[in-house]
Design goal:
single chain; alpha+beta; two-stranded parallel ribbon
Length: 204
Amino acid sequence: QVLANHVADPGVIAIRTDEDRFTNIEELIEYAKTNKLKANGSGVASDEHLVSLLMNQKLGTKIDAVQFEGTANSSTAFLGGHIDILVTSAGEAYNLHNSEQLKVIGVAAKERSAFLPEVPTLEEAGYEGVYSQATRGLAAPKGVDPEKVKILQDALEKAINNAEHVKKMEKLGTQVSYANSDDYLSMLEQDIKDITDLKDLLGW
């Protein structure tokens, strides 16, 4: 029994601050249509990998994913020039962006990130269909009494939207994004559809 979504961390695309082949998302995509680029992944069908696959499928780019074990390794490789672009989450990127260690140029979500309000979404830049966000929510075991489920849902709505909690989560680099049980279930179903639509590219 799905209860509520707690947080949502949208995917972002970043370039190095000394990058001279492209300076914004439009230039990157146009460049990547005729030139191969290397991006990061953290495993086949990981959030980062899916962004590259979606861009290739929907925008005609030529981005190859190099798989790493975790964000720390991929960020180090990116900053060292071993891959061309970094696909990560807004929560992971915004401190590096604000300290000018990298430059986030696009958000792979339907809305801008509250952590990076000046950075446009890919959709705003004219590129639809490239969406990625890591969500985390809560669920109860199947068969729990409906009255208890309702109590849990009401309590979670209040707790997740609590102003002090929201501020604490921001300090941890995590954006609170409450969704009730119906909306959260729809989000999960859409995630399944998005991955299923890419099964041929994934070799499944």
